[in-house]
């Protein structure tokens, strides 16, 4: 049986950072670069510890290739730059087949997020802020405003769902 300490390290670092990235994307539509850097570094260390330098190098190469493939989408405004960086960083910590499953899970989660936003345009009432509204209430009001004006999706939510699913549900050998 392989040493899974490296994968555990990746899980412990990546899962909270994915949740943070999703929350930050909802609130500001920005993901700090430090999130992607930390995920990539933890992923690379984890891959070296778990699978060795050759497999870690392959994962790093796949992360770079994914970045280069997604970059044109960001340049056209179809995907945020932070989303591209977080997805690429996740690929560094995953085996090639896990990266594929991560992409598929993220795309499905993104589809559900898109449907929720389409339905939200018709369902979400126009909320009002009154006095000392909580942070959560203020974020919900702003998000409802974005939904109604057809603003961009916080795609880091889909990335977080895809990443967390792959990190927690895949069997390890």
From TrEMBL:
Record bears the keyword Membrane: yes
UniProt EC number: 3.4.23.43
Pfam families: Peptidase_A24
GO molecular-function term, one example from the UniProt record: aspartic-type endopeptidase activity
Residue span, Prepilin type IV endopeptidase peptidase domain: 13-115
Mode of membrane association: Multi-pass membrane protein
Domain of life from the UniProt record: Bacteria
Record keyword Transmembrane present: yes
Entries under Gene3D superfamilies matching the protein: 1.20.120.1220
Protein name as it appears in the record: Prepilin peptidase CpaA
Subcellular localization(s) per the UniProt record: Cell membrane
Cellular-component GO terms for this entry: plasma membrane
